[in-house]
Amino acid sequence: MNEVASFDEYVRFMLREAGAAHQCSPVTLVGHGQSGDLVASVGPYVIKFAPGDLPDNVAMLQREVDVVRWLDGRVRTAASHWSGPFDGGLCLISERLHGEAVSHVGPQDAADALVATVDVLAALHSLDPAGCPFDMSLAAKFALAERHVAAGLVDEDDFDAERAGWTARQALDHAHATRPASERLVLTHGDASLPNFIWAPGRPAGLVDLGRFGLADPYQDLALFLRSARFNHPHVNAAAILRERYPLSALDEAACAFYRLMDEFF
After folding, report:
1. What's the Cα-to-Cα distance from 58 to each of 53, 129, 192, 231, rounded to whole Å?
2. What tens digit of pLDDT does each residue of 17-63 get?
3. In the chain, pLDDT over 70 holds for what percent of residues?
4. Does residue 119 carry a catalytic annotation?
5. What residue numbers bound the domain in which 48 lies?
6. Which position among 8, 37, 191, 263 bears the catalytic label?
7. Of 95, 126, 149, which closes a domain?
8. pTM
9. Which of 26, 163, 171, 189 sits 20 to 30 Å CA-CA off 133?
10. Are residues 115 and 84 in the same domain?
């Protein structure tokens, strides 16, 4: 059996295990991503598989399952169809949201897609955070960052250009030195890069990849949104959209820089 056929069958076996077989639809590999997870789409489903030899990935995927259940439709997310153990790891089969990643919309639609993304972030941040069990405050983030640095899990070669040549320890020391004096905790996506928002014209944006969701400062999302918008749609003034739609009278550039730095550890 060739590699593609083997991969197809592997994904279809997951679907059969979940009672969601979709034999007539092609299997499309979305990617293994930097995390090492397998991600594929088949018909109305998106399949994610975190292998058992990557326990942090399994924990992150389980967190995503729990987050979607806790949010319970308060913002548009990909509904979970099935999750459970598979081949020593964890599998999640979710609804495939209609539309495409905001990172990949055409230039003519980019401004509308960014408006929809800001609107869903504003809606998320305005939800009542009471009872949220997912802590991504700075205390929790720094504890995770310390563990990732100590375990050698930080990819220093993938640092932003402004930190090229830094070690993970240097970056973390700088994060401690520039830590904001306070934070305002709201519900945040946690990884608000444009590939994690799905949009179609006339519809609200939907949130995917919620493994880093939790209570954090709004700039956790705003900083990564702006960085991703500059990279994917540089012809659109995303900062102006943010100030108009969020609303935000002025951007805290120091907060943006800090939360971009913290993203290096995850």
Report:
1. 9, 25, 21, 29
2. 888 877 778 889 886 445 678 899 999 999 999 999 999 899 999 99
3. 96
4. no
5. 3-95
6. 191
7. 95
8. 0.92
9. 171
10. no
